[in-house]
# Entry
Amino acid sequence: MSFVRNLVFAILLMNSFACSGQKDYLIKIETEKGEIVAVLFDDTPAHKSNFIELAEEGRFDSTQFHRVMNAFMVQGGDVFTKEKLAPADWPTLPAEINAKHFHRKGMIAAARQGNGINPERRSNGSQFYIVIGKVYNEEELKADMEKLQPAFMQYVQLASQEELRKEYSRLYAAEQFDSLTMLVVSKREEIEKSLNLNLTKNFSKEQIEAYTTIGGTPHLDQEYTVFGEVISGLEVAEEISKVKTGSRDVPIDPIYMNVTVEKMTRKKIEKEYGYNYPDGK
# Structure
């Protein structure tokens, strides 16, 4: 029995050493604002391998963060425009949308064309964005605004809701749109009961925790492939998101990037960057 126990212990020890020595790709995005460091997810293999290949070939270098929006995201990596490839010929990647990878702040996702011309939600073959987003309160987060807004307008037409209708009109006239949104959100459960509707979005405990603490862009969940995560330099992406922009959210002063890839043991990545690899990563 002692031999068996020792053998099992030896196997577990060998597995532990194997895992600690396993290497991953560390992504470094260098900009004039500073360096952003990221890892990419193993369970989005097409996106991970494609990004690494583009980076190793230097094709991301001298592309820009060409679309930036404060409290939303920064988008860049337009390799194919730089290479003067016609948009009709831009490569795409199959969607690798995974419910466990959602749009919390710091996540990296693939840009894509809209559902009208891209019902399969295929990703652009090079462009990516880094999520900035905002922090939500739980009531605001759970409200399905696409359904709630028309339901609210129906509700305020009821004779019993004259005071609510007046308050809505007052806020609208004063252009107090944040207060207007919160007024609509605060009436969600009341409207559900009155009109017998479901106006609530379902989120996991992990999503609720993330979106009500560090923030993100929850309305993008399950629509775009999230394939990586910033583990250092998120403040750089935030600074980029705040630069002055012109037409179509393009920075007035271009923000260029150079992207490199370094192989490093996962143990070293965890130690140097304080990152913990989740199960199934």
Summary: Residues 25-132+220-273 form a domain with the Cyclophilin fold (CATH 2.40.100.10). The radius of gyration is 23 Å. Confidence is low (pLDDT under 50) at residues 1-18.
